[in-house]
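Marked as duplicate of an earlier ticket. Keeping the data here for the record.
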Amino acid sequence: MTVVLGYDESPGAERALRVAIEVSAAFGELLVLVYGAAAPGGTGEEYRTHHEALRQAGRTALNHAVQTAATAGVPTAVEIIDEKPAQALIEAANRHGARVIVVGSWGESPIRGALLGSTPHKLLHLSDVPVLCVPTG
């Protein structure tokens, strides 16, 4: 089994990273770091440029998370998935047989998250894997 973490360098993701490292270490499991890199649109040069910029942002963010986990002695795998964050996390969790998906919150109100479709809110409704939503400190 594994622990899957959605990571994007936001304050909520930073705190979720610390919790995911603790969970991975406690169970002796691989930490799978996931970045959803779906660009809006779907064709043309502007789309390709935006898509590559998102993938580069993901590589940069995940590199930081890998270093943090390595310092704690937790092995990692990295996935940049061309899906929106919630779908990317669900796909990775299913593929890796995840014990849990860990995600940070942005401190949004429950109503705003429900109306706008926050990633934690979507995961709680769509995932068959347990979701650990870490509040921003």
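See parent ticket for discussion. The mean pLDDT is 87.
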